[in-house]
Automatic annotation (TrEMBL):
Keywords: Cell membrane, Membrane, Transmembrane, Transmembrane helix, Transport. One of its GO terms (cellular component) is plasma membrane. GO terms for molecular function: lactate transmembrane transporter activity; solute:proton symporter activity. The lineage of its organism: Bacteria, Pseudomonadati, Campylobacterota, Epsilonproteobacteria, Campylobacterales. Belongs to the lactate permease family. This is L-lactate permease. It comes from Campylobacter hyointestinalis subsp. lawsonii. Uptake of L-lactate across the membrane. Can also transport D-lactate and glycolate. Signal peptide: none annotated. InterPro entries: Lactate_perm (IPR003804). It is a multi-pass membrane protein. It comes from the Bacteria. The chain crosses the membrane at residues 6-28, 33-50, 70-87, 132-154, 161-181, 187-211, 223-243, 249-266, 290-309, 347-368, 388-406, 519-539.
């Protein structure tokens, strides 16, 4: 009994940094970077005085985490935003938006195409609140009520969040737990793809139901079925067999193509327009211009796929001709090898470099076609760095906390204590991710905060007598953290604030929260049930290699 009480005391001590992070964001309304800085400071104090880690070792762990946040994590985000800004400044992004809107006049199907499909494309390309802001504004422009449009876009954004900004939530988590888990980003991506498939297919029908009830679902069923199934199949295949960078982009593009072609041969008998508004006239889009509008993102897909080819990866292995581009730095304050940590600067192998090269090739094409000039190119680069400096710094601090928590033993204490819930932990695993995204507004931040906790809980459960799952549970729980997080996005204060700002409803955040919260709770209970089923009945489906 005494030993158990001591473990819970340690649990609450190690919980202090996370509590500080949440309280700073929710009650004191501090900026993310300041909340993260206070969290790192608290974790360092606990590491020194409770976990018996030296100040020099704590500093080394901080540097390791912060630098890992800069490269490869921040590098991926910066490269992705740069590519998007080039598309936007060239005018081609406006063509992309118009091409999606012009497919059908039916508002129910337009919501699927814009909020679900195009929103997923934007989530995969840029993430960080941009998709909800852009798609909600588009729907308002089509005649939907602002609150209604914002709520639908928040719900639609659940399916792609796990792979947002070219897979950064999963990539970041895999990086942060690399020292304590064998689960790599592709294994986690595959597991998320298997768990989220029912929700992915359900969400489009649910969006139509919210707009027009069962009558609307019946009238649009063929088109929505094509959109949902094509999206789900592409998401499953890409997340399981290509990697963690492209599921959003590939599934969105494939679903848009399939649904567009289907709507050439099938039309709903009744055209549904919100409040009976008139069908707006759409101008014809030049096919050549539309093709070039998609070119930057098609190049992105080719680049990411090329980076996943085994023959290409072999170039960076020991003995490969590009092995020298993987530079490993030893971080040892004062030259003490006993406290040293390592940081890998993989200059070319990083997915961020693939995205950046796609951006450079796209820029060259845009320059040749005179859609941008050199001044616009440098303007896009400057705006990207300026817009992302605070988010990137915040990510660096959050990864630094994850590094200290994992290596000092804080995450192990949290995980081992929570694992005392035994078999029930599988149900609560995604709820932890859900709470993390609710409070931080970011699946990436939630994964960085709780990834090591999930791994340590999995280790305890796998080592317990009579455990059904002896390996792979860390992959399941890491995926569950992301899985639960995607349905927390629709109720996070940051997401709601972005959505309200995009549709001119600043000050109405509580109304939007009430619209989405009940659905978010139902979804996360469903996430817990799916995780529990995998842990107890479908554990053979957990990827191990």
């Amino acid at each position: 009994m005494l030993e158990q009480s001591v473990s819970w005391i340690g649990f609450f001590i190690c919980l202090i940094p996370i509590a500080i992070f949440f309280v700073s964001l929710v009650w004191f309304k501090l900026q993310g970077w300041l909340a993260a800085g206070l969290t790192v400071f608290a974790s360092t104090i606990i590491a020194i005085f409770y976990n018996d880690i030296s100040l020099a070792r704590s500093f080394a762990l901080f540097l390791e985490g912060f630098l890992k946040g800069m490269w490869p994590i921040a590098w991926i985000i910066i490269a992705a935003i740069f590519l998007y800004k080039l598309s936007d400044k060239s005018g081609y992004f406006a063509i992309l938006k118009h091409s999606v809107i012009s497919i059908t006049p039916d508002h129910r199907i337009q919501v699927i195409l814009i909020a679900f499909c195009f929103g997923s494309f934007l989530e995969g390309a840029i993430g960080f609140g941009g998709p909800v802001a852009i798609t909600a504004a588009l729907l308002v422009g089509l005649g939907l009520r602002p609150l209604y449009a914002a709520g639908l876009c928040l719900i639609a954004n659940t399916a792609p969040v796990a792979w947002g900004a070219v897979g950064i939530p999963i990539i970041a988590m895999a990086q942060s737990v690399a020292n304590i888990s064998n689960a790599d980003q592709n294994m986690i991506s595959a597991m998320v793809g298997r768990m989220i498939l029912p929700i992915t297919i359900f969400v489009p029908f649910f969006l139509v139901f919210l707009m027009d009830g069962f009558k609307g679902v019946k009238e649009t069923f063929p088109a929505v079925f094509v959109a949902a199934i094509s999206f789900g199949v592409a998401q499953f295949i890409s997340s399981n067999y290509i990697g963690s960078e492209l599921p959003d982009i590939l599934s969105a593009v494939f679903s848009l193509i399939c649904t567009t072609l289907f709507l050439k041969i099938w039309k709903p008998k009744n055209i549904f327009r919100v409040d009976g508004s008139d069908i707006e006239q759409t101008k014809q889009i030049n096919g050549k211009e539309l093709l070039f509008a998609w070119v930057p993102f098609l190049i992105l897909i080719v680049a990411i796929v090329a980076w996943q080819i085994p023959a290409f990866k072999a170039l960076f292995a020991k003995g490969g001709i590009l092995h020298y581009t993987n530079i490993i730095f030893s971080i040892a304050p004062g030259g003490d090898a006993n406290i040293a940590t390592k940081w890998n600067l993989d200059l070319i192998k990083s997915a961020g470099t693939a995205i950046f090269i796609a951006g450079l090739i796209s820029a060259l094409i845009l320059l040749i076609r005179k859609k941008i000039d050199t001044k616009t190119f440098w303007s896009a680069a400057g705006e990207t760095l300026n817009d992302m400096k605070i988010p990137v710094f915040t990510i660096g601090l959050v990864v630094a906390y994850a590094s200290i928590a994992a290596s000092s033993g804080q995450a192990r204490i949290l995980g081992q204590t929570l694992a005392q819930t035994g078999d029930a932990f599988a149900f609560f695993s995604p709820i932890i991710g859900w709470l993390g995204v609710f409070l931080t507004g970011s699946d990436t931040s939630s994964n960085l905060l709780f990834g090591s906790l999930q791994v340590e809980a999995a280790k305890v459960i796998m080592s317990s007598p009579g455990a059904a799952v002896k390996e792979g549970l860390d992959t399941l729980f890491l995926a569950a953290n992301t899985f639960g997080g995607v349905v927390g996005k629709m109720i996070s204060p940051q997401s709601i604030a972005i959505a309200c700002a995009a549709v001119g409803l600043v000050g109405k955040e509580s109304d939007l929260f009430r619209f989405t919260v009940k659905y978010s709770i139902i979804f996360v209970i469903f996430c817990g049930a799916i995780t529990w089923i995998y842990a107890h009945f479908l554990y053979d489906w957990i990827p191990l290699v």
